[in-house]
Specification:
CATH class of chain A: Mainly Alpha
CATH superfamily of chain A: Cytochrome c oxidase-like, subunit I domain
Strand content of chain B: under 5%
Number of strands of chain A: 0
Structural class of chain A: mainly alpha
Distance between the termini of chain A: 38 Å
Number of helices of chain B: 3
Shape of chain A: globular
Order of helices and strands of chain A: HHHHHHHHHHHHHHH
Number of domains of chain A: 1
Radius of gyration of chain A: 23 Å
Bound molecules: protoporphyrin IX containing FE, copper (II) ion
Helix content of chain B: over 70%
Radius of gyration of chain B: 19 Å
Order of helices and strands of chain B: HHH
CATH architecture of chain A: Up-down Bundle
Structural class of chain B: mainly alpha
Largest sheet of chain A: none
CATH topology of chain A: Cytochrome C Oxidase, Chain A
Chains: A mainly alpha (539), B mainly alpha (98), C mainly alpha (220)
Largest sheet of chain B: none
Number of domains of chain B: 2
Strand content of chain A: under 5%
Oligomer: heterotrimer
Largest interface: B-C, 49 and 56 residues
């Protein structure tokens, strides 16, 4: 190494060696460890999805048995939700950026941060173990009695895996909350924080308040399956619907764990690509908190056609309409920010636009489903599947990829070919719509979810969907390809390739181990693009 | 931050907790109809509050800590309230099984 | 250079590199512990939710189940835990004022009370096994099935609580080691403080479990 002794080295270089990575307490290295692991799980989950789409090419259940198909969609859901999407943005971009955006050297509890990665790995390994032992067939929701009375023992293993992964996400959220409260740089008041921090804060609240409930619920299911404790067993008076209450008390808020970070990323990107202060900053900030809080009051919209009281359903339906408001506030404010912004057509821009469009469709169809009467028709059809994929893949994954493209130069010190970045964004957008738009139609026409065979008249739409999925898959592989390839090229990224504001752009790409050579003091609002332009104009 | 309370305070709280335990046991032996459990819970809540405020030192802590300490209980109320709201209103329609 | 960097030599040895000073470090760990306790509240909350629902649905089963519990042992354990909370609070205080011997004595007392609690719990559990009150295949068939719900929840709630006690004893052993070595003083007592928070929380759970499980319908 030809570095001068005193020159601080980038976090990628020092210290050196495998052990220094596996035992690292550096939030940036942990972010990369997470990035690699969730990519692996994304690919595994995608493999299961490919199986599902292949089976649905034809109306007959010819490729897989019904049992096998049940296992495929269960594993797809479990892997994608718990081992990819929930950790995706928080554990990678969040881990990397939260301390830097706070102006801190690290998260408040670096060792716990590392522990969370190991817990994630242990949980993921156990769940994969359940796959190899013969799979799980309950659906990602682990509903009783599929998961208890009618289960094979693999459910317990998979549930334990998810339980442990839950603790990894609790630890991440816990670290973020303490860091944001206690480690902000001097001058960084709450309303000067980048909106990504607000979003991560709101996400962390949901992780902290919700995840333990699903953990104990899975433990109760485990006690039922393994020990014969009949907590949800109707034979001793237990109620399977109680499981649904407890599960959705976490899992509706959990869908916001999956989308709030994406919203945070998009807020950063929108400001950067339109070179403007975010329109209505405080509304966007507060709407994150509103989503986190109101999101806890609507879980019963997943249970309209369980034996839930229709009065409860009525209340859930109304609050569901209300929870859409803060999401709409964000969408309006992003659009208003783009409006008359000096938009630069760089690859992050494509992901931003894609996100806003797809999230809009997902959110609006959520309102359809939240209308209690309509949901009787739509529940458990492909309409629901399309809805949540629009939000989780169209919204969550688009935002994640947008964020990865935006911060890649910062994280790795490398740039990728801009043209490929744009092409892949378009491929993903087109492929995604081809895959899931037909599912709205076919679901509305009455095709139920979670069956391996279907009536012939649905075939055309399903073939379109499978074709679209191939395009989508090519888009994703392309991204992985050129991002990995960029790692073998020399470091060529400048400190601030996008001309963006924010503490992370004031330090080198890639940053040094402790982020800041001089402890930062914040003196201006976030996204002060106007001020910055003025400054350069004055020179 | 590092506020040191007197030992006497801790002893006082300890004695109160023991007395309240006695109260819980005693009240359980009196027939108060539907009120037995709510009162037992109220006494438990008082005991928990004493522990939180004095033994755990929330009394001398930042407002933030107070909010955090309260939030868990608030969220439990959401969980309990809404879930029971479902079960308790099921019979309102008067249609069996609905 | 910023002043926070200059005095590296003068730092407290227990100050981690990413904090500015001991005050920030202490505040972060206390907030962290409280946030963790919120997750614990929610974790137990799921069980209390099941308890609330089934007790509402099956009051008779709850009455019958509760009558099988030993109120004296439950009450004894309540007192034992309150004693342990007192000694714990005194241990934290001893750390704050830097009294090494008082820390050691109080931590040992706390561990003693904790162990007593677990021993009593062991005898209670053994009795339940003997009387076929453990849910599952061997549950006493003459009893109303819904009583299995009561005992399922009894075992899960007290079992997870006892597990927390075991973890707590482990933490106490670690704190005891630090106290023995004289690590804790007015400037650095965060580990004792957060261990104390955990211990008190476990006590609070029991404060609720005792009347909810042991004291139903004692007047009948
Ligand atoms: C914008 C407001 C939203 C509304 C009003 C809404 C409404 C709904 C409703 C009513 C259902 C139940 C449909 C049924 O099963 O019959 C549902 C399902 C679902 N939603 Fe949303 N949603 C919204 C946002 C989101 C977000 C942001 C996500 C994820 C990031 C999401 C993910 C899901 C998932 C995963 C399911 C299906 C769960 C399953 O049954 O497997 N939703 N949504
Ligand atoms: Cu929902």
């Amino acid at each position: 190494m030809n570095h001068a002794v005193n020159e601080p080295r980038s976090y990628l270089d020092a210290p050196y060696g495998v052990a220094s990575w596996l035992l690292t307490k550096d939030h940036k290295r942990i972010a990369l460890l997470y990035l690699i692991s969730i990519t692996v799980f994304f690919l595994i989950g995608a493999l299961f999805a490919a199986g599902i789409r292949a089976e649905l090419m034809t109306p007959e259940g010819d490729l897989f048995t019904a049992d096998m198909y049940n296992k495929l969609f269960t594993l797809h859901g479990v892997v994608m939700v718990f081992f990819f999407l929930i950790p995706s943005i928080p554990a990678t971009l969040g881990n990397f950026l939260v301390p830097i955006m706070c102006g801190a050297k690290d998260l408040a509890f670096p060792k716990i941060n590392l522990l969370s990665w190991y817990l994630y790995l242990i949980g993921a390994t156990l769940t994969l173990g359940a796959v190899f032992m013969g799979g799980v067939d309950t659906g990602w929701t682990f509903y009783t009695p599929y998961s208890s009375m009618a289960s094979n023992t693999n459910v317990t293993l998979a549930a334990v895996g998810v339980f442990i992964a839950g603790f990894s996400s609790i630890l991440t959220g816990f670290n973020f909350v303490v860091t944001i409260h206690r480690m902000r740089a001097p001058g960084l008041t709450w309303f000067r924080m980048p909106l990504f921090l607000w979003a991560m804060y709101a996400t962390s609240l949901v992780m902290i308040l919700g995840t333990p409930v699903v953990a104990i619920t899975l433990l109760m299911v485990g006690a039922e399956a393994a020990l014969g404790f009949g907590i949800f067993d109707p034979r001793v008076g237990g109620d399977p619907v109680l499981f649904q209450h407890l599960f959705w008390f976490y899992s509706h808020p959990a869908v916001y764990i999956m989308i709030l970070p994406g919203m945070g990323v998009i807020s950063e990107l929108v400001a950067a690509v339109s070179r403007k202060q975010i329109f209505g900053y405080s509304f966007v900030a507060y709407s994150s908190l509103a989503i986190a809080i109101i999101g806890f009051l609507v879980w019963g919209h997943h249970m309209f056609v369980s034996s839930q009281s229709i009065y409860a359903g009525l209340v859930f339906s109304i609050i569901t309409m209300i929870v859409a408001v803060p999401s709409a506030v964000k969408t309006f404010n992003w659009t208003a920010t783009l409006y008359r912004g000096s938009i630069t057509w760089e690859s992050p821009t494509y992901w931003v636009i894609g996100f806003i469009g797809l999230f809009l469709v997902g959110g609006l169809t959520g309102l359809f489903l939240g209308a209690m009467g309509l949901d009787v028709h739509l529940h458990d059809t492909y309409f629901v599947v399309a809805h949540f994929h629009y939000i989780m893949v169209g919204g969550g994954v688009m935002a994640f990829l947008g964020g990865v493209h935006f911060w890649w130069p910062k994280m790795t010190g490398r740039t990728y070919p801009e043209t490929l970045g744009k092409i892949s964004a378009v491929l993903v957008f087109v492929g995604f719509n081809l895959t899931f738009l037909p599912q709205f139609v076919v679901g509305y026409l009455g095709m139920p979810r979670r069956y391996h065979a279907y009536p012939e008249e649905f075939q055309i739409l399903n073939v379109v969907s499978t074709g679209g999925a191939s395009v989508l898959g090519i888009g994703y592989l392309l991204i992985i390809g050129y991002l990995v390839a960029s790692m073998f090229k020399p470091r060529n990224a400048t400190a601030n390739p996008w001309g963006a504001t924010g503490l992370e752009w004031d330090i080198p790409s890639p940053p040094t181990t402790f982020n800041f050579e001089i402890d930062p003091v914040v003196t201006e609002d976030a996204y002060n693009y106007a001020g910055r332009a003025q400054k350069t104009g004055d020179n | 931050m590092s506020h040191v309370s007197s030992k006497g305070l801790y002893y006082t709280i300890f004695i109160s907790l023991i007395i309240l335990t006695g109260v819980t046991v005693a009240i359980a032996r009196v027939d108060l109809g539907a009120w037995n459990t709510p009162i037992a819970l109220a006494v438990a809540a008082v005991k928990a509050t004493l522990v939180i405020l004095f033994f755990m030192g929330v009394r001398n802590n930042t407002p933030l800590t107070k909010v955090v300490a309260a939030s868990g209980f608030l969220w439990l109320i959401i969980l309990f309230g809404i879930t029971m709201g479902d079960y308790l209103t099921r019979s309102w329609l008067g249609i069996p099984g609905r | 250079m910023h002043p926070a960097h200059e005095n590296h030599g003068g730092h407290h040895p227990m100050l981690q590199h990413h904090f500015f000073n001991m005050g920030q470090q202490l505040e972060a760990s206390i907030l962290g512990m409280w946030v963790f306790l919120v997750t614990e509240v929610m974790f137990f909350g799921g069980l209390f939710m099941a308890y609330l629902l089934y007790r509402t649905l099956y009051p008779a089963a709850w009455l019958a189940g509760s009558h099988e519990l030993n109120e004296v042992l439950g009450g004894l354990n309540t007192v034992v835990l309150i004693c342990s909370s007192l000694t714990m609070a005194l241990a934290v205080r001893a750390a704050q004022v830097g009294a090494r011997m008082a820390q050691i004595v109080n931590i040992i007392l706390t561990m003693g009370f904790g162990t007593t609690f677990l021993v009593v719990k062991y005898y209670e559990y053994a009795a339940k096994f003997e009387h076929h009150l453990v849910p599952g295949a061997h549950f006493d068939p003459t009893r109303e099935p819904a009583q299995q719900l009561y005992f399922s929840l009894y075992f899960m709630m007290t079992g997870i609580h006892a597990l927390h006690m075991v973890v707590g004893l482990g933490i106490m052993a670690w704190i005891l080691y630090g106290a023995w070595k004289g690590h804790f003083n007015a400037e650095y007592f965060a580990p004792v403080e957060i261990a104390g928070l955990y211990w008190h929380f476990v006590d609070i759970v029991w404060i609720f479990l005792f009347p909810l499980l042991y004291l139903i319908g004692k007047h009948q």
